[in-house]
Amino acid sequence: MAGSRKSKxxxxxxxxxGTVRWSKGMREALAQFNDRPCGHCGGLLCDERSxxxxxxxxxxxxxxFYPPRAARLRxxxxxxxxxxxxxxxxxPHKEAVTDLxxxxxxxxxxxxxxxxxxxxxxxxxxxxAARWPLFVLRELLSANPARHQAGAALVLELLAANxxxxxxxxASCDDAQRKTxxxxxxxxxxxxxxxxxxxxxxxxRRPPWKNRQALPVIPTLxxxxxxxxxxxxxxxxxxxxxxxxxxxxxxxLARELRVSRESADRWMKEFARxxxxxxxxxxxxxxxxKALWMLGLRPELIEAVAANGREIGPEDFGTLPGNHWGVAxxxxxxxxxxxxxxFMHGPPPILYSGDVSRxxxxxxxxxxxxxxxxxxxxxxxxxxxxxxxxxxEWDPLAGWIARGFHTNRWVRREAGEWLARYPDTAxxxxxxxxxxxxxxxxxxxxxxxxxxxxxxHAEAVRNQAHAYGAEAANAVAQLLAIAPEELLPDNLPMxxxxxxxxxxxxxxLKAGGHALPQAVVPxxxxxxxLGKPDTPYPGLAGLLDALTPDSLARFGRAxxxxxxxxxxxxKERWMxxxxxxxxxxxxxxxxxxxxxxxxxxxxxxRAYDAMAMLGEIGSDAALxxxxxxxxxxxxxDLRTRADRMLGExxxxxxxxxxxxxxxxxxxxxxxTRARLTLDFGPRSFEVRMDDNFQPVVHDARGKAxxxxxxxxxxxxxxxxxxxxxxxxxxxxxxxTVATTQVKRLEAAMCAQRRWGxxxxxxxxxxxxxxxxxxxxxxxxxxxxxxxxxxxTFRISAEGELTDLQDDAVKLPETARIGLxxxxxxxxxxxSLAAAWAAVLADYEIMQPFEQLMRPVFVLDEALRPxxxxxxxxxxxxxxxxxxxxxxxxxxxxxxxxxxVDSFNKAVPxxxxxxxxxxxxxxxxxxxxxxxxxxxxxxxxxxxxxxLGDLPPVVFSEIERDLQRAIRDTP
Length: 970
Known about the structure:
There is one protein chain. By secondary structure, the chain is an alpha+beta fold. Helix content is 47%, strand content 8%. It contains 44 helices and 17 strands. The radius of gyration is 35 Å and the shape is globular. The chain starts with a helix and ends in a 5-residue tail after the last helix.
């Protein structure tokens, strides 16, 4: 980005001269223009007119000019740079940007400044700055950009790459431009002082990349694995979470095996019906013949294997007959030696669908004899498979465990637990791989051996290495003597020259609260660049641990903003991938917004990566955003991935997804009264959340302020800057949290969720955030079944539970608590909703969503035996209203020909209510929201059940959704 030789020759004060520098490509495009008279007025574009009249003619006839670029260039040829405005379009294509760069006119610079958020326009400004440095910078400053905006970032980047421009720029600016420049370059450290060198993290005091030394070469040895340990510790395997939740976890392994065998028996009883094409010798043979046929053994070998005990191998299996699902369970009809051989060599692993529940009974029944067949079914992405491996003490597993430990952050904990549980077995299995041929397996094994050595298992590593001989022991000793931080690539990455290091947020040390000097920031960036997404640089963890999480998160967000603002260069993708390790709640909010944008733009890979980072951040705010993705119905892939990620977290914590959502509402730093103290040093301010969950600042006397005042001379500058930043982030997060939690509470009311007192009090009544939304709502006391409403109450401003008369309400230990639907309130007392509405009005409380005054609908008795709602057929609904149904739990369905032709909503009993439309739109189109569709029908899918089977609340909500979306046909 440094100024070009041309800019130095012309001087920093060079300015655009209003000329057009035609390129060969522009001339060739101009030659394609074919001017034809207008069919209405007979005019030609080339007719002699004034500039104003020519522009008017062009705009009125632009649709008939082809190609459009050639027509614009014809205008440019006729009128010069004055016609540049014809190229000024939002988000211009690269071709238009190229043409604009040839127009040396101040208006073009101004256009690029206005469009600087577009990467092509930003790059164009960089090229223009090489020609007219001070002029471009002044134009950028005249726009008075905020510090977080792209224009401000470009000013700082240009000055960082060309420090000799600073003084001439200051001298040439007017007062307003000079003031903007000073604001953008002001010290944002908040008065934080630099830390002394002896306080820096050890990695920065002596960076390995600045003190590179020749490392010993670890020899490659062809070692034969030692006889393995092969033990299965079934008593240590916990039952799956769903069994723990139901209380049916006793003797679960035996029950799982019995269920699998019963399934195999059913397959065998239905063999004749399901396999009419089986050879006669198979149909007339015994269960072994039938099982081998089902498992894909080649027909000509079945008799020899079943009757004569012929040995089998992978080449003996062919195409599977008929339905593949579940046929692997036919293995139970084989004698033990043959069953083990089939497990080792066939059927293909796809038959087991990666399902641990199918592999686990086989290992439980056959024991260690079946272990040689296990590696075919191991999957790196399956946490359940790693959990199964936790009870398998077997040397050949070590390499697979090491790969998970080294490259897969999702299973690193489980892999580490296996290594620590069986250190001798792990080391014995890892040594031959760690000294084997170079490649990913060797790297992972070496990393696992280093970890074992540093985790207190050094003796186990040494002993197992010696078991392979003196040469292996010496090689392992050399390996362990190398510090992981010293393992560097031959070619070190380079810090981007355009990255304005001086403008990055300061990194604050936990110890002492001082900042790392700017001089060591390149070394911090080097430690970040040296790693890979799943294998960070070994020295990075210790470095990050020495810095405060807040400063790291702000530093990371600045890198993310620079990466996005510069077109997301692949070479600097580490700035993106590190967000999961550096980020906090605000980072999660930004990633959530970005991944939705990327998914809409069909940039799935980047959206999935951002989702993974939300899981890696793992904060309450991050999990809340994952829950939002799990609830949305627009993108099935995002919902499925979010469900899986949340399911893993919920399983780890022993919770349902709803319970996890209850427990991961971020508190935003608020106390139990939903308040926050901001410290300026000698004085402080209190932030209180109002009924709309917006932060309101109050001074020490309780007076409400519009915002925080500027720091005074006696204030602590560092604390004041931190408080200001904290308030800004609180405002952003509060808006997101409010939207999310209001939707969740409304969904809980419609789904008739219930809680016990031990959940309601801490997660709603006393939660710093949810208490704000819970106060305006009316809560219900239900019987033990959760179906019958027995009483109502609200949460007062003081956090007390009170009834209609403001008398205290005590929650019975056995009570079930929920948000009663108006239908449930009316069933208890028809006048109760109006009475509560009056109480809330007296306190000037507005409900965050319709509860008491919510429209309700009751199914007509005549429609109870039917499956469709005939009164909706033939009515019109706009595309915008249809897509709005997706926020209410409806999901679009793609029918024949790729047309979106229905919207469905799940109802109890595994059924769906379907809104079918006549035409719809193609799945890849962006439909016009105002366009109307005609409703073909609204009905239950399938053939079982009627509308009368729907719970009253479910029907009322369906009807409410439809009432809000569909209108009478015009």
